[in-house]
């Protein structure tokens, strides 16, 4: 078997664009998921009546249904209700729905891991519930939850392969399209593998380094 390296080099810019699309979609979804999880965790911590059970039901639904089903629901079901979204908005919304559920559970576990004596001490010092959450509970919960949180960053980035189902030109979509057009299967698969390794390995090392820094309190948390 001989590889058409000239063909691979000619189409490398297209795969570079696909990698940028992958990172952009995943990055927006991760930030949005963190915001959703932070809001949900605050509601759970303050035990807002009527909302806690809704959030718990959302977490179970998000974590126990496949992303592809969530994606198809947003893409095909919402238009029947008069809600029309672009394929990019659909992908980001579905990824955020999934990521928000996982991140909420990570935050909840981190908050519950903070010892009750510290919470009681904060209240005894006259801190309000909001001050207790912001000054004592949240910083420690973030440090405890960092390994799981970073693992879910990688997980959500990998899940971007699913959004090719709604024609998002990310890496997998570009690969399958070019295989169908040019029948350069091995070349395209090699480029796809190279790009995923190029994306995931440095990110994994970076997150591992950040995790060690958080664990030793180097960021002042």
From TrEMBL:
<keyword id="KW-1133">Transmembrane helix</keyword>
<keyword id="KW-0813">Transport</keyword>
<keyword id="KW-1003">Cell membrane</keyword>
<dbReference type="InterPro" id="IPR010065">
    <property type="entry name" value="AA_ABC_transptr_permease_3TM"/>
</dbReference>
<feature type="transmembrane region" description="Helical">
    <location>
        <begin position="15"/>
        <end position="46"/>
    </location>
</feature>
<keyword id="KW-0029">Amino-acid transport</keyword>
<keyword id="KW-0472">Membrane</keyword>
<feature type="domain" description="ABC transmembrane type-1">
    <location>
        <begin position="19"/>
        <end position="207"/>
    </location>
</feature>
<comment type="similarity">
    <text>Belongs to the binding-protein-dependent transport system permease family. HisMQ subfamily.</text>
</comment>
<dbReference type="InterPro" id="IPR000515">
    <property type="entry name" value="MetI-like"/>
</dbReference>
<feature type="transmembrane region" description="Helical">
    <location>
        <begin position="67"/>
        <end position="85"/>
    </location>
</feature>
<feature type="transmembrane region" description="Helical">
    <location>
        <begin position="132"/>
        <end position="155"/>
    </location>
</feature>
<protein>
    <submittedName>
        <fullName>Amino acid ABC transporter permease</fullName>
    </submittedName>
</protein>
<dbReference type="Pfam" id="PF00528">
    <property type="entry name" value="BPD_transp_1"/>
</dbReference>
<dbReference type="InterPro" id="IPR043429">
    <property type="entry name" value="ArtM/GltK/GlnP/TcyL/YhdX-like"/>
</dbReference>
<keyword id="KW-0812">Transmembrane</keyword>
<dbReference type="InterPro" id="IPR035906">
    <property type="entry name" value="MetI-like_sf"/>
</dbReference>
<feature type="transmembrane region" description="Helical">
    <location>
        <begin position="188"/>
        <end position="209"/>
    </location>
</feature>
